[in-house]
């Protein structure tokens, strides 16, 4: 039985640093170690933290699943899903993080290994399935986010259904009552107004560089 909330983080790099910062400064968990699979350990010279870096493949020998929580900080959905399944087989309880300044209802339904970051806004009757990350997004009421998904600074209307393993990027907007397929990639600034099939990719053209330079207009219009 866990008497305290000691936490091992799976992952290294800047995304892991971002998640670790959240747990250290805004959660009841105490981060005690980082881990990766044995195949990757030799490629990592050091981390930005004082925690030991340990082998995930035999993690349970050093960090008993009955005493430690685990959180998987991997952006890639398929890799995160694979590690999640291995962690569950090892018997680990996966932590969930909800920022104290996130806006969400008391009856919010979440799975485990869920991250809900600061400035996120979630209306009532929303469900977020296992292993999904919500970073500064706004989600309308009665919406459902499928497992292994990642939403970053986007806007979902009410009653939106997001399939599993889907990414929705910066400033993307989803019309109310839309069904987003599984394994979708919805890029920055995309506007989705109709249901999407599985394995779909959406993107908006990037803003083009202007032929005029800063020197051409500096002092004239600025």
From TrEMBL:
Gene3D superfamilies: 3.40.50.20, Hexapeptide repeat proteins. CDD domains: LbH_AT_putative. Pfam families: PglD_N. Substrate binds at residue 75. Keywords: Acyltransferase, Transferase. Residues 6-86 form the PglD N-terminal domain. GO terms for molecular function: acyltransferase activity. PANTHER family: ACETYLTRANSFERASE, ACYL-[ACYL-CARRIER-PROTEIN]--UDP-N-ACETYLGLUCOSAMINE O-ACYLTRANSFERASE. Belongs to the transferase hexapeptide repeat family. This is Sugar O-acyltransferase, sialic acid O-acetyltransferase NeuD family. It comes from Salegentibacter agarivorans.
């Amino acid at each position: 039985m866990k008497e305290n909330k000691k936490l091992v983080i799976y992952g290294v790099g800047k995304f892991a640093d971002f998640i670790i910062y959240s747990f250290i400064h805004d959660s009841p968990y105490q981060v005690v170690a980082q881990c990766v699979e044995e195949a990757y350990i030799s490629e990592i010279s050091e981390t930005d933290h004082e925690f030991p870096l340990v082998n995930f493949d035999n993690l349970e020998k050093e960090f008993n699943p009955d005493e430690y929580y685990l959180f998987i900080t991997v952006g890639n959905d398929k890799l995160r899903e694979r590690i999640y399944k291995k962690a569950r087989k090892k018997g680990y309880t996966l932590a969930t993080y909800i920022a104290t300044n996130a806006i969400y209802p008391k009856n919010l339904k979440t799975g485990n290994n869920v991250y809900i970051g600061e400035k996120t806004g979630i209306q009532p009757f929303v469900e977020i399935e296992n292993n999904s990350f919500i970073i500064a997004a706004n989600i309308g009421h009665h919406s459902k986010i499928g497992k292994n998904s990642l939403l970053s600074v986007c806007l979902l209307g009410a009653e939106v259904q997001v399939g599993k393993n889907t990414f929705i990027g910066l400033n993307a907007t989803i019309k109310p009552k839309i069904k987003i397929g599984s394994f979708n990639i919805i890029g920055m600034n995309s506007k989705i107004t109709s249901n999407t099939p599985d394995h779909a990719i959406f993107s908006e053209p990037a803003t083009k560089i202007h032929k005029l330079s800063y020197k051409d207009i500096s002092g004239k219009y600025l």
